[in-house]
Specification:
Blueprint: E1 2-6, H1 11-14, E2 26-27, H2 53-57, E3 63-66, H3 75-87, E4 92-96, H4 108-120, E5 123-126, H5 129-139, E6 144-145, H6 154-158, E7 167-172, H7 182-194, E8 199-206, H8 219-227, E9 234-239, H9 244-253, E10 256-258, H10 268-276, E11 279-283, E12 295-297, E13 299-300, E14 303-304, H11 306-321, H12 331-353
Helix pairs in contact: 3-4, 7-11
Length: 354
């Protein structure tokens, strides 16, 4: 079974196959731009979604599977791609990772893109029951619910974890993408952690927000983040994008990771924390809380309950003081889960082709 995945290089897509490598599904590699141009993080817009690619390559694949990466592709272009798939009798499978695009300030563009994809898809997949119910209400489509696979290697998942002498809470503002609102969350954490002996707050942000030539240039918010470093129990770090190994090392150094998202749906970051045994506190928006065991605080576009964040942090602190480890995946569990995910995808692909 040959699958054209959009994209294929993302770790989520790579981990839809069996960990043993003996898998009946083969996924095509991502086409690489001739000029080699990429955006930060080494990603490039998916060439499979360019008009003409399907017609030029339809003999190479059996199923076309869209995940994400179509942020800047208009519904008219997606409609043209769908028409090409129909012309060559190729089924579309669409995994709904995001009901609301975390990179878009407004929901309209993503909604229009999803209108095209969900109308055309033979098979719809998502990651949580809540997202499936939202898809049913909005588009009258039934979605298969398949969990997010692990992100880290078996060795990293099985590595021993030090309890740590300090209770370290981390907020990573990344490059201040549209769904992030870190300042009120950091404000609340500075106060909440000051009440807890041995507690420290680590705040990270990408250095590109201080680069005037960069799309993500945001010096006012950047300077506000830097100002938190004046507190004795707060460490602020400005740096380039982490490599994968650096990111895993960073997450493993935290006791708790707090996600400062005003809107969104699912999170790979959360899955990495679960792989590493780092506790995670997520906002009430979206369906993060249905992915893995986690703390939850009231945070969305129209609300923020500071006391709920304080309660979640204090609860995590009490567990840490008592020596109770955060929920963590084992490799045996992740391997079994991944084999099930791979089998489910193979079954759905066969159904789409037949």
């Amino acid at each position: 079974m040959r699958i054209a995945s959009v994209p294929a290089s993302h770790i989520y897509v790579q981990h839809l196959s069996r960990p043993s490598g003996a898998d009946p599904v083969v996924r095509l590699d991502d086409p690489v731009p001739a000029d080699g141009q990429t955006v930060p993080g080494g990603w490039w817009p998916p060439l499979m979604l360019e008009p003409g690619w399907v017609s030029d390559n339809h003999r190479r694949f059996d199923v076309f599977h869209v995940h994400f990466g179509f942020d800047a592709i208009g519904p008219d272009v997606l409609t043209a791609v769908v028409q090409e798939l129909n012309e060559h009798d190729k089924p579309l499978v669409y995994t709904v990772h995001d009901l609301r695009n975390p990179h878009h300030d407004q929901p309209d563009a993503h909604a229009e893109q999803q209108d095209v994809l969900l109308a055309a898809a033979h098979t719809v997949i998502t990651l949580t029951p809540g997202a499936a119910r939202a898809i049913s209400r909005r588009w009258n489509r039934s979605a298969h619910v398949l969990p997010h696979p692990h992100l880290l290697s078996s060795a990293a998942i099985g590595r021993n974890r030090d309890h740590g002498e300090r209770f370290v809470v981390g907020v990573h503002a990344k490059s201040l993408r549209a769904n992030m609102d870190p300042l009120p969350v950091i404000d609340a954490l500075v106060v909440a952690l000051a009440e807890l002996p041995g507690a420290v707050l680590r705040v990270d942000v990408h250095d590109e927000i201080f680069d005037s030539d960069n799309y993500w240039f945001a010096p006012e918010v950047g300077n506000a983040i830097l100002s938190y470093g004046r507190s004795d129990h707060v460490s602020v770090r400005v740096h380039p994008y982490f490599s994968d190994d650096q990111l895993w090392e960073y997450l493993a150094s935290l006791t708790v990771s707090v996600l400062p998202y005003r809107f969104g749906t699912h999170s790979g970051w959360l899955e990495a924390c679960f792989d590493l045994g780092t506790a995670i506190i997520v906002p009430s928006c979206g369906f993060y809380h249905q992915q893995r065991p986690c703390g939850v605080f009231e945070f969305a576009e129209d609300r923020f309950d500071v006391s709920s964040l304080r309660r979640a942090v204090h609860a995590a602190y009490r567990r840490w003081r008592a020596g109770v480890a955060a929920p963590r995946a084992t490799w045996a569990e992740r391997r079994t889960e991944r084999n099930g995910i791979a089998e489910a995808h193979h079954r759905l692909y066969e159904g789409a082709v037949s």
